[in-house]
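pinned: reference chain
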Amino acid sequence: MRILILGGSGYVGQAIWRRLQMSEDVYGTYHTKRIEYKENEKMFFYDLVDQECLKQILVTVRPQVIISCLRGDYSLQLKAHEKVAMYLAENDGKIIYFSTANVFDAKKDKPHYEMDETGSETDYGKFKIQCETLLNEKLGTDCVIVRIPAVWGKGCPRILKLKEYAKYQNPIQTYENIATNYTLDTQIASWIEYIIRYSLKGTFHIGTEDTYDYTRFQVELANKLKLETLVLEKEVLPELCYQAVLPGREEIPKELRLTVKDVIAYLKEVEKGE
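pinned: its structure tokens
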């Protein structure tokens, strides 16, 4: 199966690439890491501003499945997804679109499952809802929506920032009294592989099955990684709120599911000696 990952050079895109290339014909796009991918015939330079560039990539690769991890200007992303949807509709293809927990950021009274009605008060969340709606309307059951919380993993940007701030004792802005869930790059990749292999449809929330206080998670992780004591700039919210997209799809097997405890244990193991 020919698969194109839009945003294949990003942290999540790279994890999906590593997993899928073992069994599928995988291509990707990059923007900023030009030197690293210049000689890779399966990676294509793509600038959101250049819509003809996207058209040429689609013609060249002829993907059966497109996985969208794009980042960048919202209006340009929306135009790109309109073109992608048109191509897939004309060529009997499918899309897996990466969305976010922010599609629920106006409804923080509880964690959310896949069938909950979305509602956002931020530009980012509203944009993601707009993309979800566009792709669902254009492609119907050939559109899979994947919503994720904060992504962690070996050498991820959040780990690097945590280590740097701990080392130099820079204050970390954090929020107390907000419960979130978490995911790993490896969990995302394994779920995407499973969704493709078994042709699953609809919306999926990829993340831990439980939630944990945002500040406590950072402190506990720093302790497990044996970092210097964190300097925290806390904003204490007046009442408990949630920013969590919990997985509720029963088709996903138990071995692909995680708890917050699993995430912290994994990060402790893979960051050992780093």
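why pinned: The domain at 2-150+184-205 is CATH 3.40.50.720 (Rossmann fold). The chain has a mean pLDDT of 96.
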